[in-house]
Structures are given as structure tokens and as C-alpha cells.
Amino acid sequence: QTNKNKMQEVLCSRPELAEKDIYLVRHAQGQHNVSARFDYDPILTKQGLNQVRGQKSLAQSLGVDLVLVSPLRRTLQTATGLFPQHGNMVSFEPLREGVSESCNLRLPIEAIAPRFPEVDFSLIESGP
Q: Residue 18 has what DSSP assignment?
């Protein structure tokens, strides 16, 4: 199944999204953005966490119906920080950055999911 088909599946399963605005958000500052080392699936820096806190009220004012987020920890931290207790947050593998650097390799989903209980990981295959 192609990424386009997967995205259509997600959208078709949620008819309330038929005609909605789409906002694209890049993750806040990650450890890999300030280090010469590219760690495996890095988390946000303290500054990145502050960036999320600084944009939280704006993000919540948008009236977002669905949050699609890649399964990388830095993007999950950003999304869950911007939209806490959202109730309609889905992790979607095709949103992940290309795997050209070790920082874009994710941890096994079984290790990530318990840390983000507000996110639906049902579309993610197990493993890294």
C-alpha cells in the first residue's frame, strides 16, 4: 500500500475531516539540531521544550480536529506538548523524515507507545 493510499485510508476513516484546513508543524529543536552527533531517535532539547510551551496557546487556538504525527520521539514530544489531551492524535509512519541519518531511525514502537498514551499507534507496524 502506498503512502498516498495510507493517508486516504486515515482521512476516509474520519468523515469529519472532509473539508478542513491543514497545518504543518515541524518539530521543535531536537538534540540532533545542536550536536555534531546524530543520536538514534533523539528527543527535544530544553530549548525545544521551551519552544513547544511558547507555541502551545497558539496551537490550541487553531481548533485542530486531528493531529497526525510521525513516530519519532521529537515529533511526538512536539505534538503532545502543543495539543495535550487532544483525543484525536494518530501516529503515521509516512510523515517520518527519510532515513538518511541515524537521528531519523526510530526506536521500536513498543518502546515509544507507552510514553505517549494519548497517541493512537495502530497504523504503525511493530519494531523500529
A: T
